[in-house]
Amino acid sequence: MENFNYYTPTKVVFGRGTEEQVGELVREQECKKVLVHYGSGSVKRSGLLDRIYGSLDAAGIEYISLGGVVPNPRLSLVYEGIRICKEEGVDFILAVGGGSVIDSAKAIGYGVANEGDVWDFYEKKRQAKACLPIGVVLTISAAGSEMSDSSVITNEDGWLKRGYSSDLGRARFAVMDPELTMTLPKYQTASGCTDIMMHTMERYFNQVENMELTDGISEHLIRTVMKNARILMDHPDDYNARAEVMWAGSLSHNGLTGCGTDGGDWASHQLEHELGGMFDVAHGAGLAAVWGSWARYVVDARPERFAQFAVNVMGVEKGTDEMETALRGIEAMEDFYRSVEMPVNIRELGVDPTDEQLHELAEKCSHFRKRTIGCVKKLDVDDMYRIYKNALG
Question: pTM value?
Answer without folding.
Answer: 0.93
